[in-house]
Every structure is written in structure tokens, then in C-alpha cells.
Amino acid sequence: MAPEPPLLSMTGITKAFPGVRALDGVDLDVQEGEVHCLLGQNGAGKSTLIKVLAGAHQPDTGTIHWRGGPVTLRSPMAAMRLGIATIYQELDLVEHLSVAENIHLGHEPTRAGFVVRRRTARTSTAALLRRLGHSEIEPGRLVGQLSAAQQQIVSMARALSHDVRLIVMDEPSAALDPDEVDNLFRVVTGLTAEGVAVVYISHRLDEIRRIGDRVTVLKDGRAVARGLPAKTTPTREVVTLMTGRDVEYVFPPRPAEPPTGEAALEVRGLARNGEFDPLDLVVRPGEIVGIAGLVGSGRSEILETVYGARKPDAGHVLVGGRPVRPGSVRAAVRAGIGLAPEERKAQALLMLESVTRNVSVSTLSRFARAGWIDRRAELGAARAATRELSLRPDNPAVPVRTLSGGNQQKAVLARWLLRGCRVLLLDEPTRGVDVGARAELYAVVRRLADEGLAVLLVSSEVPEVLGLADRVLVLREGHVVHEAPARELDEHRVLDLVMEGSPAS
Amino acid sequence: MTQPVSPPRYDSGKAPAAARPPAWRTLAARADVRTLSLLGVLAVLTVIGGVTKPDEFLDTRNLQLVLTQASVIGVVTVGMTFVITSGGIDLSVGAIVALASVWATTVATQEYGFAGILFTALAVGVGCGLVNGLLVAYGGMVPFIATLAMLASARGLALQITDGRTQIVTVDSVLGLGERDAYVLGIPPLVLVFAVVTVIGWLVLNRTTFGRRTVAVGGNAEAARLAGIDVRRQRLYLYLLSGLCCGIAAFLLIILAGSGQNTNGNLYELDAIAAAIIGGTLLSGGRGTITGSVLGVLIFTTITDIFALNNLQSDVQQIAKGAIIVAAVLVQRRTASTT
């Protein structure tokens, strides 16, 4: 350790949200001029930690020291004034303003307090962009016309316009092409040479090896390892630190015999440019097939394309051996496919409506004669379907928004159960579902499969895929790198595959 | 387990038989706070009218007049309620009423008599609704812009047809419907039409797949799409429906005024939106009430009548309307946050 105090030192940071303890006593030290990498699985607490650092969340307990003295980061402005800038994954730039206007947003150089000195703004913008080695970006261009990589540079220039000493970057390489990543690394190296510290979040171990100085690993809201050397710590050790959780989920037993029937769902060469490569897969009745992959690996896109919500560039989908018209949700639903989407509230539920109406919405015509709904039949059917899934409370007349996350998910499943679908697509089925309610949801999914449904499951939680699925496809950057029965895989191996792309030795 | 099993299907299971409470009790339980408060406002207005002008306000002829005037805008509001419930807006209703009323009263159309006028009014309404619907549903235009464009063009066309002149109706069978001896049990035929449109509108919104899909599209269009609803076709139908209502309203207006004019239906869009909103339909979509909308229309029409009887200027009226809209929305926000 350097003799002088670290630039930033966070100790014992805790932060709880209703139902979750997102941070459970995290420590983090960052030295001047270093690239400090933050690693951890989804839900490990990375985003919460950087939001605390950005002043967007207030920690429940814990202290933050900045250049040796204690500070409180009451607001994003307070963090900014100290010299802490955060570049989030979704860039917060105003597309219809110019580069210079974006960079000086909120602190425009002015004359007499309100007249913007446009020339000064342009000159200082040009200087900042030169410092980042990107003088080719024209300060007068609209940000909306720039590429993702250039927008990221503008974000960094904006951070630097505040005399910044620490930049937090949340998965900056996720949206970039490989040569743009090289460029990003040059910029980061340049910044650290000036003494600016960088907290770098990424899922890609190879990047961390190239650019990082030290690594802190988060797991279940705790820092399980601090200040590991980024270049020399073996992959196996890092993966071991990230896995091995405290909470063990209970998964229902698999059928003794693997299902052998005709394929219920067959995907042939399905592809979308820039999202996922040609994909082949088969799901038989009674089988649960899981897709494991990180955010941005193309897993949700695959499900939505199978479902017809996105139009494929190549390939097709067959249900029961018959091709489904591509790019049409209605065709997919008619063919017997149901989707429980990732964003339940935004994509599946009618939050103002009752459980009954949410369950019956895909089946309305079955309860109607000449458009006239038989509401008693509708209610009875909704009741039967929600009972089958033990949805609580046992009263389908209650508004769906009053339900817990797990029961809301059951309402979505009941919709497809009622429809009598043959293929069920589950995208992050336990997102927003309490740990306690998960086991029950897993049991429901397995029971539906046992009753003859073909289930295709996508999850960023590797244990969930391994525990629930019969067969697992491992996806990395839109490409299936491995396929195996779930019982032949473990969490280590899958994480190795999704992060490095090759099996660990 | 290896046999493919067809997944279970649930047909109408038996709901547990519950003892039915008396009809009045279910009715009282169903009438929510909002409906009751609107009825309360209407009652207060009636008292004000009865106190300020006891002889004139409660006169049967005056009440017939109030209801007749409410009929035209009321029919438009029923259509508007559907559109707003689906998360859309139709700014062109007033202009469509104007265009339909002048097209249906040209000399050429009047030659075909009653049927010609009725058919033309409805056809023009549906035609304009079709254009709106295609632009919104399949052209991907924002409803605000598409119907604003229709507002401008339909008004322009209406002016072109009439050249600014009032087109007097000479077909007796049409004019006769506005006469006193056409009243059924003291109820003007126009009011009967309004009542029928209201009842059908209520049933369609609350009891049919069409109504359910309208609410679903307005509540969460993406969820509706992913649930397998044809959201675009639904939107097309909704603007068609609004256009049809405008056509009906235009026919009523022709009967009422005995003429067609390009200035007909001026600012109907604002009155219809205001009535729907104070009635409790969410401007953001996902919840709509025909009952509320009709009460909203009756409240506005009653205010107009009271002001007219008391010789108050229309500018004062406008201010009062504005205040009521604000008050109603504020009250609704409160009740919405407490329930």
C-alpha cells in the first residue's frame, strides 16, 4: 500500500431495499491513478455500490473517506463536486444537443450569468476531446448522430470537464466493437497516467487482465476479495470467489427418463444480425431447456425472436413440426407458444386490472359468443388456472398490482396455462421474486413440464438454469459455445464458458 | 412421463354459487365514489338552477332542451371515451361532425331524402375515422398529430363544400324528428338516440372482447401485443368507432339545427375530452367509463343552461368549465391515491 491515504476508501457500506440486503458491509479502496476492477455476478451488489459512490443512493451504514477526510455524498451533484464522475451503461446524453452543449450541460460558461459563451464552450470542448485523443469529434455535431463509442467519449469528456479525480465506468465495453474497445483502453490508460483513478466494471475477464491493476470481487452484497492483482490472479480463483453462494435453492427433481417425444419446439438457424448467430435447438414435450448467458449475450433477444416479437434475419421456428410465420406474435400464440417476459410489469401485466382479466386476456374469444363475454365462465376458468398454480390470494378478482412478484409471475403463467399452450418461454422467471417464493415457482415450472409442456428458460442466474433445466445451452456474445445435459455441468464451468469462451482446465 | 401429454385446458369451471344480495344493494356497491360524486355535482347544479330560476329551469321544456343539447356532444363523447381508454386521442371529432353535417345537407344529397342524409352523415364519419385509424395504426403516426391533421383538412373541406353558406334542410321527414309531436312519451328522439348509443357503448366497453381489448391496449400496449392481441387492428377499429359516433352526432345536429354549416361542432373535441376526463377516464389510457363520460356531458350542458337562463356571458361559462375540469382531476387524484 502507498504510504499516503487512498484516494477513496469505503468501509462497511450496507444498503437494504425492501426484501433484499443489496450491500452487506462492503469495503473498497481506490488509489490515485489505478484502474480498480469490480467483479461479481448479477445481483452481487455492483450497481448498488456504484450508485452509492455516485451519490444516487444513500448507504444505511458505513463511512466514505475521500482523500483522507470523511465525506457524505448526499446527491449526485455532491459527488460531482468532489470529483467523482459516473458513466452509466445507458449513457445520459441529450441526443438533440450538440457535443459542446452536452459536455457543459448544467455548468455552461456564461456572460452576465445567462448568455452562453458558445465559443468558449466549443474551445474547451475541443481541448477536452483532444486530451482524450478524439479530436475528430466535432464539438458542434449533434450527439444523436455519433456512434455509441463516440458518445461514450463525450460522456468521459463531460466527466473531465468537472475536474474529475475518479471515474466510475459501468460495463463501458458492452456496446463497443473490439477496435473501439482498444481505443477506450488507450483513453483509460491516458487518464490514469494523469493520476485519475478509474473504477471499471466488466464481466469480461480478458479485459480486466489487460487494463486492470487491482480487482475487488463482490458476492451477495459482500466484498469477498479486495485488491487482488488483476493481471496475475488465476481465472479459477476469481470464478471460485464469485460463486459458492450462501443461499441454496431447492429444485424439484427431474424425471428419471429424459423425454424422447417428437420436438414440440424446433428452432432452425434462427439469427438476428448483431444480436445472435444462427441457432438450432429442440425442446421436447416435458423437457426444460435452459439458456445461460450474461446480460447482452443475446438470450432475451432469442426468446423474443422465437416468440415473433422480433423479426429474424434468417431461420425459422417450428411448433409440433409446423413452421410458424416469423415476426408475428399472433402466429406464435396461435401455434401454441407462450412467453413470460423479462419485464413482467412493462411487458406482460395490465397493472390496473384484476387477476382474472390478466389471466384471460389471451383467451378472451373462448369465453365470448359474438364478442359477448360470458364473465362467469371467464372467472371460473381463471380461478381454475390460478388454483392449479396455487396463486395467492386465492381470489382472482383482486387487482394484479396487489400481488407479490412471485404471484404476479404465476398470473402470467396462468394466462398461458389457460390458453393451453404447448411451448412456454420463460425469460428471467424469478426476477423480482423473493428467495422464499422461488422454490415454489421452480416446482410449478417443473410440474407444467411434467404435464407435457416444452419449456425454454433463460436466466442470468447460473444456478437457476443448472437446477431447473434438463439441458443447457451456454451463450456468449450471441453464440452458443456449449451444450450439455444440466447434470454434467456445474456453476464453475458455465461461468468459465460465459466469461472466457473456453472451458477452464 | 415419456408419453407426450396434452396440456390441461380449462373450460368454464364452476364458480362457487354465492347467495345473491338484493339488486339495489349490488347496484349501490358497484357505484363507485367517482360516479356518486359526479351525481352529487349534478344534484347541486340542479338545486342551483332550481333556486336561481325556479320556474324556468325545472320546466319540462327546459329539461328536454338540456338533454337534446347534451345528445349531440354526448354521442361524440362516447366515441371519444373509447379512443382515450385505448391510450389515444381524437382531436378531429368537431371537424368530422362539421364535414359530415355539410356533406349530408348538400342539395345533391338532400335529393335522396332521409336515407341519403343519414347514410352520407354516417359514411363521412366512418370514412374520416378510417383515415385517422390507418394513419395511427398502420402509418405509425402519433394520434395527436394524425387527428390534428384531420381536424384541419376536414374543416377546410367543409368550408369548401359550403363556401361559408348555411345549407338549409328541406327534407320534412328529417326536420320532423325535431318537432314536438315526434317526442316519445315526452322524450325527444335525439335523446333516445343518445340513450341507445350510451347503453350500447357501455355494453361494448364492459361486456365484450372488443371493450376488453380496448382497455388492454390502453393499459399496456406492449403487454397486449405480447399477449397475442392485434393492437394495430384494434386501434384502427377504435378510430372508426369514433368517426361513426361523429357521423351519428352530425345527423342529430342536422335535425336539431335544421341545417348544415361548416362551423358546426366547433371545439367539440375539447368538450368531449373534458367530459371524458372529469367522468374518470384516464387520459393515459387503461381505464374508461361511459357512465362517467355521460355524467360529465350532462354536467357541462346543465352549467351552460343555468348560465344562459341567468343571462351570464359565455366567457364566465368558459371560466367555470375550466375550474370544474381542474377541480375534478384534483379530486380524482386524491381518491386514486387513497384507494
TrEMBL record, chain A:
Q: Which residues form the ABC transporter domain?
A: 8-245, 242-502
| Superkingdom of origin organism | Bacteria
- Please indicate if the UniProt record lists Transcription regulation as a keyword: no
**What InterPro entries does the record point to?**
AAA+_ATPase, ABC_carbohydrate_import_ATPase, ABC_transporter-like_ATP-bd, ABC_transporter-like_CS, P-loop_NTPase
Q: Which residues form the signal peptide?
A: none
One MF annotation (Gene Ontology) recorded for this entry: ATP hydrolysis activity
- What is its subcellular localisation? Cell membrane
Query: Is Coiled coil found in the keyword set?
Result: no
Q: Which UniProt keywords apply?
A: ATP-binding, Cell membrane, Membrane, Nucleotide-binding, Repeat, Translocase, Transport
Q: One GO CC annotation, please?
A: plasma membrane
Could you tell me the membrane topology recorded for this protein?
Peripheral membrane protein
List the PANTHER family hit by this protein, alphabetically.
Answer: CARBOHYDRATE TRANSPORT ATP-BINDING PROTEIN MG119-RELATED, GALACTOFURANOSE TRANSPORTER ATP-BINDING PROTEIN YTFR
Q: What is this protein called?
A: Sugar ABC transporter ATP-binding protein
UniProtKB/TrEMBL annotation, chain B:
Organism this protein belongs to? Streptomyces griseoluteus
Write down the Pfam families for this protein, in alphabetical order: BPD_transp_2
Q: What is this protein called?
A: ABC transporter permease
Instruction: Extract the GO molecular function terms from the UniProt entry.
Output: transmembrane transporter activity
Q: Which UniProt keywords apply?
A: Cell membrane, Membrane, Transmembrane, Transmembrane helix
Main subcellular location of this protein, as a coarse class: membrane
Q: Which residues cross the membrane?
A: 33-51, 63-84, 91-108, 114-135, 142-162, 182-205, 236-258, 290-309
Regarding the membrane, this protein is recorded as: Multi-pass membrane protein
Q: Where in the cell is it found?
A: Cell membrane
| Lipid metabolism in keyword set | no
Which domain of life, per UniProt? Bacteria
One Gene Ontology cellular component term attached to this UniProt record is: plasma membrane
